[in-house]
Amino acid sequence: MRSSGRRLRCVASLALLGSLTGCAALDALPAMPSPVPTSVVPSTVPQPTPTSSGNLSPDGFDLAQRITVRIRNVGCGSLSTGTGFAIDEHTLVTNRHVVADSAELQLSTYDGRDVAVSAASTAALADLAIVRTVDALPASPELAADDPAEGDPVTIVGYPLGGQLTLTSGTVVGSTTDPLNENLGDVLVTDAPVEPGNSGSAALDADGRVIGVVYAKSSDGFSYVVPVSTLRAMLGDETSFSPSTSCTTG
């Protein structure tokens, strides 16, 4: 990673960003709409849109929407939500803690399509995981060639609290030794807001390229990101990931 010239002290309190959600909240459905008058020709149904524009171009915004996947981890007596993003047609990246101890992983795309999972694997070094899918994912982004520098813009795309797809913007404010996995080395720190459920979100640069993977936040609102250099290195090493253990098998 290029030197940022600024290192941050780790704050005392960190939070992983998996979101625990009640089943009732996930299954709630809106009321049925009124009947369409027979004299009206219906228009095309609009696609859902994120709640803010971030700092991406219109094309980058559309790609950011299509690469992002909501993950529901149905565990043995628990349910949590997180986020992932495609890196090719049948592979997505997320956090290890998003997929850990699951009985079933349920994926859905930005347009509400369910995607079947074929396998999941987790990394021992960093809070990263790979999920393979049976069904094709809508789109995949470019991974940035280098880590960002201090002051570079960043947009985080994900499903906070397991709800609506959102984009939040900020800047890279520095780097620090990973406060959760000290053997990993340096991670990025940004001031882009994140919430529980953003775990596994892609952090994008101004051109819509992936610069890292969100995995935690501090008590004073900073977000922690595994840098793209680490992601690239681990994706290039087949020994970095091992099959995820189900809560049903221990």
From TrEMBL:
GO terms (BP aspect): proteolysis
Residues spanning the membrane: none
Gene Ontology terms, MF aspect: serine-type endopeptidase activity
Biased composition (Low complexity): 39-53
Keyword DNA repair: no
Keywords: Signal
Residue numbers spanned by region Disordered: 39-59
Signal peptide extent: 1-24
InterPro entries xref list: Peptidase_S1_PA, Peptidase_S1_PA_chymotrypsin, Peptidase_S1C
Protein name: Serine protease
